[in-house]
Amino acid sequence: MEDANEKLQNSVTDLKARSMRDNLVFSGIPEQRGEDTEALLQDFLQKKYKLEYEISFERVHRMGRWDEFNEHPRNIVAKFTYYKDREFIRTHAAQKLKGSNVWVNEQYPPEIEERRKKLYPVMRQAKKEKKRAKLVRDVLYIEGEIYTPPMESARQIATTRQTGPSHASQQTPRSDRQPNKRQRQGSTPSGR
């Protein structure tokens, strides 16, 4: 029953991820009450990317509720009509948005985001050691090999072999690694 429940949960997570694959999340774009978010994003992309055409979106909106006392602007989620436009914006973000306070990221379901957060410190450490490291969805590749946390159980390894690599990184990376910035400052991140 436990295995069936886990398979069902993994299927639901996979469906959520597939429904978000045309989306990008834009962080740091200033907001105003009553704005036309799609026009705002279109204008921002035209200026930063120097496009000769308008990007076609299916939907653009801010995440969460409006609060005039928010310290930071809410993120914008954009569902692109064409995957090629989405990839162009995503792959050129580092070059085109350099020096601005705006970031572009892919959107994932919360379950995958949690797995990714656990892999970020491992990826950063690998890059410090001048190793090739790449995070694809919720799987970390270091030097072309799937990273498997050292304390992963035999059951999870077996599950990974049966269902594919998208479940290879469900465990927390080793706790003997360097603490992240918040942990060094003595605060505990919320929600973890």
Instruction: List the secondary-structure elements in sequence, H or E.
Output: HEHEEHHEHEEEHH
Unreliable runs, pLDDT <50, ≥5 residues?
165-192
What's the helix count?
7
The CATH architecture assignment of the largest domain turns out to be 2-Layer Sandwich
Indicate the CATH class of the largest domain: Alpha Beta
> Overall mean pLDDT score?
80
Strand neighbour order, sheet with most strands = 2-3-1-4
- How many E strands? 7
Determine the N-to-C terminus distance: 27 Å
Give the name of the CATH superfamily of the largest domain. L1 transposable element, RRM domain
Oligomer: single chain
Kindly identify the CATH topology of the largest domain: Alpha-Beta Plaits
Helical residues, percent: 40-55%
For the record, the count of structural domains works out to 2
The secondary-structure class comes to alpha+beta
Query: What percent of residues are in strands?
Result: 15-25%
Which descriptor suits the 3D outline?
globular
User: Biggest β-sheet, characterized?
Assistant: 4 strands, antiparallel
Q: What's the gyration radius in Å?
A: 19 Å
How would you characterize the overall build of this protein?
The protein has 192 residues and is of the alpha+beta class. The protein folds into 2 domains: 21-106, 2-Layer Sandwich (Alpha-Beta Plaits); 110-176, no CATH class. It has 7 helices and 7 strands. The chain has helices at 2-19, 37-49, 83-91, 93-96, 110-128, 154-163, 181-184, and strands at residues 23-27, 57-62, 76-80, 103-106, 133-136, 139-142, 145-146. The strands form 2 sheets. A 4-stranded antiparallel sheet has the order 2-3-1-4. Strands 5-6-7 form a 3-stranded antiparallel sheet, with helices on one face. Strand 6 (139-142) and strand 7 (145-146) form a beta hairpin. It starts with a helix and ends in an 8-residue tail after the last helix. Mean pLDDT is 80; it is low at 165-192.
